[in-house]
Amino acid sequence: MRDSHPQALFDVLEGSLATSSNTLQTIQRNAKAIIKLNRAVKGLLPAEIKPMCRVANYRNNIMVIEVANASWMTRLNYEKINLLSALRTSILPSLSSIDIRINPDLVRKSKQNSSVTKQTASTSQKMNERQISTQTAKTLLKLAENSPKGLKERFERLAALAGESTSATNRKG
To answer: Which residues fall in a compositionally biased region of kind Polar residues (predicted)?
Structure first.
């Protein structure tokens, strides 16, 4: 009968490392090898293809490369023979072929990464372009008159950001 009670993760990992197969170590070794292979492949590819592909697996002397869509697959097929010979001479003499597969998630991930970068850049630009109007500065100074010392200083610093007084010399510490 199966052990169905919860076990500590440390015990499970320790038990798996104690077995003769060492599956966890094998998985880790394979992952590291695929990461190295991915770096090597991207180093050999033209710049426009690099973000749209990745090495997914290497098994039975066949490397599997995922690409974002069919057009990138076609583009990579043109590079396949050169890539195969370069990999055979440099790091994988046993490589027999390269299998190219389409993975649409690569497009989504690259779009998300680029949109996050663009949003961050536009947000920081907008933050730098903000200014406080003179009317807002006057209101802040009126609030500062009746506020405790710490809050008063903050209101005055904010009011100093209005109009021409945005230079660092006019601001208080």
So the answer is: 112-136
Confidence band (pLDDT; 50, 70, 90) for 126?
low
Q: Which of 33, 24, 28, 26 is nearest to 63 (CA)?
A: 33
How far apart CA 154 and CA 162 sit, in angstroms, is: 14
- Asked if residues 69 and 33 have their Cβ atoms less than 8 Å apart, the reply is no
CA triple 48-53-57, angle to 5 deg: 150
Nearest to 110 by CA among 162, 157, 52, 168: 52
SS3 state of residue 159: helix
Q: How many CB atoms neighbour CB 126 within 10 A?
A: 9
Q: Which among 95, 93, 85 has a CA at the least distance from the CA of 63?
A: 95
Note the pTM of the prediction, 2 decimals.
0.53
Per-residue model confidence (pLDDT) at position 166: 42
Distance CA 115, CA 155 (A): 35
Other beta carbons within 10 angstroms of residue 51's beta carbon come to: 16
